[in-house]
Every structure is written in structure tokens, then in C-alpha cells.
What we know:
single chain, mainly alpha, Growth Hormone, Chain: A, 3 domains, 17 helices
Amino acid sequence: MRRWMVLVVLLSGVFLANLDVFIVVVAMPEIRRSLGAGEGQQQLVLAGYQLVYGLGLIAGGRLGDHTGTLRTFRTGMVLFTASSVGCALSPSAGLLVAFRLAQGLGTALLVPQVYRSAQTLFTGAGRRRALALTGGVMGLGAVCGQLFGGWLLTADPAGLGWRSVFLVNVPVGVAALAALPWAAGTSGSASHTPAGAPGPARETDAPGPARDAADTPRARGASRTRARLDLPGTGLAALALGLLIGPVLLGGHSGPGPWSLPLLAASVPVALRFLRYERAVHARGGDPLLPPALLRCPGFGRGLAVVAVVNGGLGAFILTLGLLLRQGLGWSPLMTGVGMVPTAAAFALASLLVPRVRRVPQPWLLCGAAGLAATGYLGCAVSAAGLGAGTLMCSLGVAGAGLGLFVGPVLTATLRHVPEDIAGAASGVVATVQQLGAALGVCALGAVFFALLDSGSGFSTAFAATAAAIAVTTAAGGLWARGIRPAARTPDTTAALPRAARP
């Protein structure tokens, strides 16, 4: 099994997840004109995808624990690719919304498998490199989403218009599905091995600290009797998350409406009922969607809080920056995409540099990286207030570099002490918190931005005030991250892909 190639294939899911958010945002005006989509349908095309994506992440991660990383990834990629074709061929806004929701479900199955594979395939420096590469691919997806979206709408290849932004997903998805058996070492004769039978012995099959706990005779026997999803828990989790982030995502730029506060309040008792139910399932020997032991892992809760705070600032920053460039400065879609490049490119490059600075003590690295990102945000605020586009682009690069140095180590610290048999559940929770933090950040900080616009302050002033607020929250996240348990230095030993993860 080619473990690094497996990771590369799985990372295509992270790439498409980020690409599809940004590329559709760029194409939304053309979609509205072509299909006559109303405001509610536009919100569902954009926010409905993210809502289903966020609601399904915990279940997608747990499904990886039950049926295996590669099986779950393959299912998600088939669904996502087919839905992308459906989006491109949609003759009406209603069908486009339906296929976008299906895309969100496919993405929810794809993304947690990357974090799960980093936990089960790698340890030590290898795990740090895997998570750093994940951060780099996130930035690359954002860059490509902005640039491809702007270029495709400007060039209009084959007269496809906005439909081309969905078709770009298809070759990536097909290539990932084709490469998956080869990367996993199941091509050729091995590909005919029955799903439940042991695969051929290989050097990488030797036990090691990264070997999945499911790859033991006892665990495999238990998995046959209990390997089914916690459907009531899944329903309760989806309901609680829907009540929490639904009003935020579907409220649009105007923010949550009067009906939102009761829904947000209702999410609290539902969430408490979900936690009680999960404890009861665990107490009677069942297999809960959210294992109680997960929340007791050292540093996991604090790491989730830091992830939420930093992603909240980043989500609001991307929203307000796009509005500043497109509407405030009057840039074209292509130039707006180019304007986003410094942040995303610096994020990607800095993420890849993280393994090279591993000798820096973790608290210092996290505080310094958060401080660098906050400095970049403040530079953007000052630049928007009157220093010009050149200074703004440099500040965007500084902010992206700080975030790139921050995100990977925080994810590593958050997931470090998670047992491998619940790595999928942990991955789903982390990815859910990333989405939840971004949604709440857009709601809270976006409300500041639009309130200033409504008061007549102008795009530059509104953006400057919002960027300054994001700098404060990011710096606070860096200070809070100091309390996450430092990394233990472990050798870069790895093990084969878990038995349950084979196709």
C-alpha cells in the first residue's frame, strides 16, 4: 500500500470541497441571471450546500470508522462527481438546488477521511507533514476556486457559461476514483479480494503504533455485530446542528431574521438530549455516534474552541474581502480572484513549511503564528482605509502566512491524543467545528460589516473595522492555544491502511 499516494488521493476531496465553495460564489450572479433564481434559491445554492456539508460531517467521520476510509471516500466521491454533472445540466434553479444538496452530502463523506487517514496511517513527523499538506491543499482549493471561477466566466469555454464551474469537478473526481485502487495496492489480482477477506501480506502490514484498532480479530468480530450507524444519534446531531447553523447560513447577508432566535435557543436542549443519548448508548455497550471518551481526550475541547474562533474570523474575512474587491473597488470576477491569491497562496506555502519549524516549541509557534495573522489583518484594515491596493495585497499575504503556520499545528495538537478506533468520529467533529465556526463568524462579524454599510460608512471603512475585529479574535485564539498539551516527540513510524479501510 502506497500510504502517501493514498493521502494524495484522499486530499482531492478536501481540494474539491474548498474549490466548490469559492467557485460557486464567483459564478452566482451569472446563475441568477441564467436560471432566474430567486433570493431563497440563491441562498440554498450557496448556503444549502454548506449546511448539508456541515450536518453530515460527524456521521461521515463515524462511517469511516465503521466501513473503512476508502469505502467511505469512494462512496462520497461518486456522489459528489455525479451531483456535479447534475448541477451542470440543471435546466432550473430547483434542480440545481437539489444537486447542490447532494454535493454537500458527498463532501461530508469525503473530508473526514483525510483527517482519519492522518491519524491511522502516520505518527510523529509523518502525521505533522500529512496535516500540513492538508492545510496547503485547503489553500490551493481556495486559490483555484477564485481563479478558475473568474477565468471560466471570462473565457466562457464552449459557450457553457456558469455550467463550466461544476464540470471542472468531474475530471478530478474521475481521476481520484481511478487512482484509489492503485494507491491502496488493490489493483490487479488483489482487486478481486472479497471485501471481508484478509488481503495479501505486505511489508507494510506489520503492526505499528499507527495501526487502526479495528484491524484485530477481536475488533473485526465486534465490528460485524455492531458495525451500524447510530441512526437516532445521527438524527439528533443533525437536528441540533441544523437549528444552530441553519438560521445563520440561510439568513443571507441581511443576517438572521426574527424566526432565528427561537431556533437557535431550541438547539440547546436538543444538543443536551443528544449528549445524554450518546452516554446512554455507550453505557449499554452500543456504538455511539459521538463516543464520550472523545470529549475527555486531553486538549481536544480546547483545540476545538481555537479552531472555531480562528475559522470564524477567516470565514468573515473572505466574505468581506470579496465584497470590498467586487463591489467596493469595482473589480471584475477574474481580478477579484487574483486579489484573493496572496492570502490563499501564502496559506498553502506556509502550511507546507510547518514540518520544517517543528523544533520551535508549540506554544511559541502557535502564539507567533496567530500574532502574524493578526498583524496581517490589521495591515489589511489600515490599507483599506487609504494605503492602496499594493499594501493591501502584501498584508493579505502576511495574514495567509500566519494562518498557514497556525492551522496545521492546532489540528495536530487537537487530534494527537485521540484513540485510533474513534479517529473518524474525531475527524468529523473537527470538520464540523470548522464549518460551524466559519458560519457563526460570518453571522457575527458580517453583521458588523453590513451595519456599517447601512450607516453610510462605505465599503472601505466597513471592511477596515471588520478586519480589525478579526485581528483581535485571531490573537485571542493564539493565546488560548497555549494551553493545548505540547506535542510528544515520536518517531515517524507508520502502519498499513486499516483492514476496515480496504476497498
